[in-house]
Amino acid sequence: MSRTDDLLKIRSLLQERRRTTETAQSGARRELAALKDQERDPEYEEQAQAELADYTLSTLIEAQRREIMLIDAALSRMDNDVFGECVDCGNEISLDRLEAMPFAIRCEEDAALHEQETREAARHVGSLSL
């Protein structure tokens, strides 16, 4: 199978994942709306459970929103014929990496370097606040 065929397969998987995520997000939004519309019992324990459910659903919806954004960005890169190119070095990102992480924008080497730089920057900022 050619790289082009592999990328088309990844596109199809991304499109399906987007549809599934949108469906799940719609369900979570309905649940959250229903939860907010319920009359609240003044019982503390029930209120705490409702607040926890509210927080959990809100967090889930936000994670789904971010995933849809990542999928849309990957599909846009495909439309612009830059999907699978490392944003740092311009080399091809391996198909194994793209299949495992279709949102990847860096090759393994540059991703590792970027993560190391990010950790070092976070440590530096953390040491300044001490």
UniProtKB/TrEMBL annotation:
A zinc finger (dksA C4-type) spans 86-110. Residues 83-107 form the Zinc finger DksA/TraR C4-type domain. Keywords: Metal-binding, Zinc, Zinc-finger. InterPro entries: Znf_DskA_TraR. This is Zinc finger DksA/TraR C4-type domain-containing protein. The keyword Zinc applies. It holds the Pfam family zf-dskA_traR. Residues 17-47 are annotated as: Disordered. Residues 28-41 have a biased composition (Basic and acidic residues). PANTHER family: GENERAL STRESS PROTEIN 16O, RNA POLYMERASE-BINDING TRANSCRIPTION FACTOR DKSA-RELATED.
